[in-house]
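Late entry, evening session. Most of the bench is empty. Finally got around to the prediction I had been postponing all week. Sequence below, unchanged from the version circulated by S.P.
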Amino acid sequence: MVRPALWLPVLALLAALLSACGGGEAAAPPAAPARYLPRSEVTRQLSSAFRSGLEQLAVMSQAPDEASQLAPPVQPGTLEATRCAPGAPRPARGAVWRWGCRVRWQDARGRPRATRYVVRVTGAACLTAGAEPRPPDVYDATTRNTAVHPLAALAGSGKRC
């Protein structure tokens, strides 16, 4: 039979060793510093996503007999200018940084248009944008169904969110 007095030093030594190792739990790696996009990159990525949306809208808007063609036979519209400004100072520690952007463009018929976007930029260099107000759903001739307007929600070309 082992005496309890002998166990106390062994338990104290074991407790000291475990506390020196962090109690058996791995220490969390330090957080990567936030990498927010600069204004020029926010503007570039939103413009690029908008152009892609215009092309998608042109394909969706084809006449039903042309809808099987993936290359749009009609002009998709033209992006004229994109202006973006942060809605607040750059946040600390990777919080979402809100921006406001305005896109001026012409539709396929040459009519001037403007769309406002609420843009979210994360500290991981990720950009998402939603049109305000949201454009109504459109008829997609390729699927013969109603679909979300391709300019309603846009995503940046960098890391996917």
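Two things to note before I forget:
The longest helix spans residues 39-60.
The two ends are 62 Å apart (CA to CA).
Will write this up properly tomorrow.
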